[in-house]
Design a protein that fits this description.
The chain is mainly alpha-helical. The protein has 2 domains: 46 residues; 56 residues, no CATH class. The chain contains 4 helices and 2 strands; from the N terminus they run αββααα. The longest helix has 36 residues. It is extended, with a radius of gyration of 23 Å. The N and C termini lie far apart (71 Å).
Length: 125
């Protein structure tokens, strides 16, 4: 097999993998949305709205920015969100306290509540 043939095969293989991954991700996103709609969600509430912890403006969860300390402590689902306007105008300026304003104000976390039920014993006596 010549070098030219090997290069061509490698290029074809890389190209087909990229196309396959791109189409898979599109199909995955489409399926996730249709699954949410099948579970009873309307197209309006598929993306969950949360409140900005600085100005209390309602924003989409995907559009909100998360302070690093809150992200590491609570994760992406439950962490406090800050709208982009507050982030760039108030929070991210030099010389400003960068701790999470939602944690400082003791605001409730976003997302589903964690149950403190403990362990349930399902064994028969």
């Amino acid at each position: 097999m010549s070098k030219k043939t090997r290069k061509h095969r490698t290029y074809r293989k890389k190209l087909s993998t990229k196309k396959r991954n791109n189409s898979t991700s599109k199909k995955y996103r489409k399926n996730m949305r249709s699954n949410a709609l099948a579970r009873g969600a309307t197209s309006d509430n598929v993306s969950v709205n949360v409140n900005c912890c600085m100005c209390d403006k309602e924003i989409r969860r995907e559009d909100g920015l998360i302070p690093v300390k809150c992200l590491t402590k609570y994760g992406t689902i439950r962490a406090h969100r800050i709208c982009q306007e507050c982030w760039f105008d108030k929070f991210a300026k030099e010389g400003v306290n960068h701790s999470c304003p939602g944690c400082v104000k003791d605001l409730p976390l976003n997302g589903p509540p964690i149950s403190n039920q403990g362990v349930i014993d399902l064994t028969e006596d």
